[in-house]
Specification:
With about 500 residues, the chain is of the alpha/beta class. Helices cover about 45% and strands about 15% of the residues. It starts with 8 loop residues before the first strand and ends with a helix.
Length: about 500
């Protein structure tokens, strides 16, 4: 049965803004500064048994067709086929590996060895298809802030894509050496990478300001450019992420690890909240997910929020070994706030204004009731390193620091004895390859490794884990640095002008 009920996209901040899926993907952010949210969450229209017989591409189509209702079947299947191809080093796209009683969903087999590839491989195809559907003549300029992984995944996705240009801003001293090398060696005449003197929140706020600067947009529009976003604020990033939770359940079912309809828990290492929000959407579609476990590092603003109902970014920003989670303003949480406020944009806007004004907000008791399926835990740097060491010593499986934060959170959840936690099948979103964070990983396993050079560590990790060095790492060993631009936060607009020659 085809789903003929159109899903429209509303702004989280005001009534009366309603666009199609393709328009929401093109815009990225609503004109009022709000995020686009589906006007209803569609229900899965294939049985779990049917989904269990499909490969990743098949599952992706069945989920995405329900959200992206103005794309034809052919358009959507073409986007999926072009995205999930030989860029991934495994035919299954997202392997599910059992280790120490949990299932690790490896989302890092794409071209940049991080989970962002899962959505950023398809976003350029969705975007260029959306541009054609809406008769857009302008060149699309992707503006993105990154805490490490989005940047490279977006650059790889958009490099050489006709009719697009991409500018990525990253915190100069806030990403791992491998993450930085991946970005600054990016080829492609339409790519531009800038290190800003500030942290990720500064970069993200700067990009949001550029998006809401109507005068600047008008000026660039006259010169044939229009902005869009590759950050997880773009609904074209969020929808593909819903797919892998459905796929994980389908794999468990196919392999006889779970009975049809039996609930599973999901653990997600979280910074900007997009990845766990996708799991929440999967649950609302009818996937049997019970608890949504949100794992934070020492920047534990989300842990505190789930515990107290107060979101407060007025705190010290900590640089950790899991930089993609070093975030104090979790943009995608706004979508969840909107939903638990009863899809009320006025109520949501008040809270977001409090966040930008006073740096904090508190939700009401009735809104907290909407969070009952969420559990927050956090892991310190010491606990993260200990978890990497524990898994390696117990079974030889090596985690990156972000996945280790999630794995440590699961141990805390099990120790807390919440309900029947110990007996629930649990999927952990494994968001990056350990090869992306070799120094942190190897040092956690044994302090002696800290004396080695970065690429020596890569080879040693390959040896002890029995895993081949990913192509993404081999490529940057000798790649020349192409991008050397740095700027202050208040220079971002000028830098975009410079890039566009405008």
């Amino acid at each position: 049965m085809e789903n003929d009920m159109e899903v429209r996209y509303n702004s989280t901040r005001s009534r009366g803004i309603s666009v199609t899926a393709s328009q929401a993907i093109l815009k990225g952010l609503s004109e009022d500064g709000g995020l686009f949210v589906p006007d209803h969450i569609p229900a899965l229209d294939r049985s779990l048994q049917e989904l269990a017989q499909m490969d990743y591409r098949g599952v992706a189509y069945e989920v995405m067709k329900l959200f992206l209702t103005d794309f034809t079947e052919q358009e959507l299947r073409d986007c999926i086929e072009r995205a999930y191809d030989e860029k991934f080093d495994t035919e299954v796209i997202a392997p599910l590996v059992e280790a120490q009683g949990a299932y690790y969903l490896e989302l890092f087999h794409g071209s940049t060895i991080a989970f962002k590839d899962m959505a950023l491989s398809i976003l350029p195809h969705l975007l260029t298809t959306a541009a054609r559907k809406n008769h857009i003549q302008n060149e699309i300029v992707i503006l993105t802030a990154t805490s490490g992984d989005t940047g490279k995944a977006a650059l790889a996705g958009f490099a050489g894509v006709e009719g697009t240009r991409i500018a990525v801003f990253y915190p100069k001293d806030g990403v791992s050496p491998i993450q930085e090398k991946q970005m600054v060696t990016q080829k492609g005449d339409n790519t531009f990478v800038v290190g800003i003197h500030g942290n990720f929140d500064d970069a993200q706020t700067g990009v949001k300001k550029l998006f809401s600067d109507r005068e600047f947009a008008g000026e660039l529009g006259e010169k044939g450019f229009q902005f869009s976003s590759a950050n997880s604020i773009n609904i074209g990033r969020l929808v593909p992420q819903v797919c892998y939770y459905v796929y994980a359940y389908a794999r468990l079912l196919k392999e006889g690890k779970i009975a049809e309809g039996e609930p599973m828990d999901v653990v997600v290492p979280t910074g900007n909240f997009g990845n766990i929000l996708a799991a929440y959407y999967a649950k609302r579609m009818g996937l049997p997910i019970d608890k949504l476990i949100c794992a934070s590092n020492e920047n534990k603003v989300l842990y505190d929020f789930f515990r107290t109902g107060v979101y407060d970014r007025n705190r010290k920003f900590v640089l950790t070994s899991s930089p993609s989670m070093d975030i104090l303003i979790s943009s995608n949480l706004e979508r969840l706030i909107y939903h638990i406020a009863g899809d009320d944009p006025e109520r949501n806007r008040e809270l977001m204004e409090a966040l930008s004004g006073q740096g904090r907000y508190e939700i009401s008791a009735d809104m907290r009731e909407g969070l009952r399926d969420f559990f927050g835990y956090y892991a310190s740097e010491e606990e993260t390193a200990a978890e990497i060491r524990r898994l390696y010593e117990n079974c030889g499986y090596v985690l990156d620091p972000h996945t280790a934060v999630a794995s440590a959170a699961l141990q805390k959840h099990w120790e807390s004895g919440t309900g029947d936690a110990q007996h629930k099948k649990t999927v952990i979103a494994s968001t990056a390859s350990p090869f992306k964070f070799t120094r942190s990983v190897m040092k956690a396993i044994d302090e002696k490794y800290d004396a080695m050079e970065d690429f020596e560590l890569v080879d040693e990790l390959s040896r002890i884990a029995g895993v081949n060095v990913p192509r993404a790492i081999e490529e940057i060993r000798t790649a020349p640095v192409v991008h050397r631009r740095q700027c202050e936060v208040d220079e971002m607009k000028a830098v975009v002008r410079e890039f566009l020659g405008a």
